[in-house]
């Protein structure tokens, strides 16, 4: 099954940390990571109630990079959404119930980021995520307390069955994004569009949730296109090698 990791990004108040640990355990989740949390003590322990083990077992890290390195799928939770599909930063977005359907068939770590109590997740943090999730709240008061938001998401994701297939690793996905970025150089993609295009690539592949074999196929297709565009830079044998989209050895899908 998907391994759900709740990530609190620079939380401000130890009481909210304790409440988040408590509601996680209510729904069967124990994997808590905090990025640069405040010092916490008696208040957090009291708020966690019988989930003190979740609180005391939390992983403390200093940067988002450490979370990304261990994650197969990174989810940003936000109450602030893009107003148009032309801006891919916080688009497209999914509800927690839709997120459940996305991760239902997969096996891998799904890291769900919850931002600071005063201003949430920054644009750079959201940009690095694969999927954007928002809780459908009243437009009159859309912003939830961080522990309440954790509770809603955990409720929707509780009791996930075992997944059927393994997700590509973070290293494999980052290698693919790097390859796409280089390919954009090759085709003279407009530099002013680059950041938005790469964000869109993360959104597209984030919601499709590629397997290792699919990532290999994408690399092969890009290499084939590179050879066709600049054949003088590649040997003939390289241009004719298997692009990854078929499997004569029989190890691919029927």
In short:
This protein has 254 residues and is of the alpha/beta class. Helix content is 44%, strand content 13%.
Overview of this structure, please?
There is one protein chain. This protein has eleven helices and nine strands. By secondary structure, it is an alpha/beta fold. A seven-stranded parallel beta sheet has the order 3-2-1-7-4-8-5, with helices on both faces. A two-stranded parallel ribbon has the order 6-9. Strand 1 (3-9), helix 1 (14-26) and strand 2 (32-35) form a beta-alpha-beta unit. Helix 1 (14-26) packs parallel to helix 2 (42-48) and helix 1 (14-26) packs parallel to helix 7 (146-157). The chain starts with a strand and ends in a 14-residue tail after the last helix.
């Amino acid at each position: 099954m998907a391994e759900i990791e709740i990530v609190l990004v620079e939380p401000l108040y130890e009481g909210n940390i304790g409440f988040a640990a408590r509601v996680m355990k209510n729904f069967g989740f124990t994997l808590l990571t905090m990025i640069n949390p405040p010092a916490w003590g008696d208040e957090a322990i009291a708020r966690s109630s019988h989930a003190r083990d979740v609180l005391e077992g939390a992983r403390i890290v200093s940067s988002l990079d450490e979370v990304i390195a261990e994650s197969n799928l990174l989810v940003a939770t936000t109450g602030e959404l893009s107003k148009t599909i032309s801006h891919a930063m916080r688009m497209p977005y999914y509800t927690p119930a839709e997120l459940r359907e996305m991760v239902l068939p997969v096996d891998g770590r799904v890291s769900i980021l919850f931002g600071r109590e005063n201003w949430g997740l920054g644009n750079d943090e959201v940009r690095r995520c694969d999927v954007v999730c928002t809780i459908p709240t009243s437009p009159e008061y859309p912003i939830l307390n961080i522990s309440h938001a954790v509770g809603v998401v955990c409720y929707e994701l509780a009791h996930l069955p075992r997944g059927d297939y393994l997700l590509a690793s973070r290293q494999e996905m980052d290698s693919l994004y790097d390859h796409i970025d280089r390919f954009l150089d090759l085709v003279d993609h407009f530099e002013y569009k680059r950041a938005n295009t790469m964000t869109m690539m993360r959104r597209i592949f984030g919601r499709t949730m590629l397997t290792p074999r699919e990532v290999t196929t994408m690399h092969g297709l890009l290499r084939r296109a590179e050879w066709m565009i600049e054949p003088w830079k590649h040997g003939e044998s390289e241009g004719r090698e298997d692009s990854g989209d078929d499997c004569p050895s029989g190890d691919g899908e029927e």
